[in-house]
Amino acid sequence: MNEEGSPPKDYEFIDTPEHLNEWVGKMRAWLAESPDKRCCLDTEADSLHHYHEKLCLLQVNCAGRYALVDPLAISDVTPLLELLDAHELWFHGADYDLTMLRRTYGWNPKVIRDTQIAARLLGARQFGLAALVKNAFDLDLCKASQKADWSRRPLPPNMLSYAVDDVRYLLPIADKFVADLKAKGREDWFHQSCLSLQEDVAARDNVAREDPWRVQGCGRLHPRGLALLKGMWEWREGIAKERDTPCFKIMSNKQMVAYAEQFEAGQPLNPPNGWRPRWKKEFFDIVAAIMASTAADWPQRAKKTKGRLSDAQRDQIDKLCAHREKVAQELEIEPSLLGSRATIEDLVVDGNPSSHLMNWQHDLMASGLEQVLQTAAAE
User: Fold this and answer.
1) Which domains can be identified in the chain, with CATH numbers?
2) pLDDT in tens, 82-112
């Protein structure tokens, strides 16, 4: 114990390029000698606290040696990324981490493994890190810092301890999962699924989103309501940027869609009670401007990219989903792991399952795919 009675610190907090280079050098030597060559990585960002989300901390585990790297103080972490690219890199729930790493550094790790994917392929229904640690070690991870502002400096000891714990247990959990995946003959499923996640993140992040104001739920709105939604979205963006706060803290997407629906129905619009007078005035100015405009100026409803499904296609989709449920039940995994309903709709529409399913998914679904799609082609 240290003089304050807390456990001794077993990690390094790195906030200078010199310290990072020194630590990376030590880890290269350590990994060269260690029988375990794996590394782990986690990230913390500030999306709940600021308008522009940014990476605020990188948590690293190199075969049992830990470091917390401060990307707010070190703009170029290339030495660390090069070290991690030379080794199998483990995450837990890697989607957001990969997205932020790609946006911040243009980096896509060479080989990733994800304990969350492994847990789901083994049939786990609770696959958060805290649940996995509890199940494996009967330890309760403190999650009090999960929604904290990671851009604050200095970070207090409790947040640093929380951050290290996010990578501390991954390798022991990975050992158990890899053994179980091999025993069940699912290791190749795991590798394919990890690669697919990387490809999905890269593809998603490369697509510029058109009309970002078209939030979830707006599909049921007509042009009049869409005009108000667009106006509110643009106003919210300006206020959030001005105050450096997340947009949802000004007004949620759900609230905006509800106001747009009320506007379409001719109902009175009353801004939230907590709004300052300036915000209320600007809100009513948006409404007045739309009422003074003409319908020709209003946004149109988005055209559906998918054509309307025929009755025969709907029948095929239902049969394939039923087959998926049966296969998943036999494997004791979630049906969605074999392909979401949206994926099944896409493969029915274009008739090419291999372009929508991973090889292991296709193999498990093969009998149902062959029966349903060949029967449809013959009719």
Assistant:
1) 11-206 (3.30.420.10), 220-297 (no CATH), 311-378 (1.10.150)
2) 999 999 999 999 999 999 999 999 999 999 9
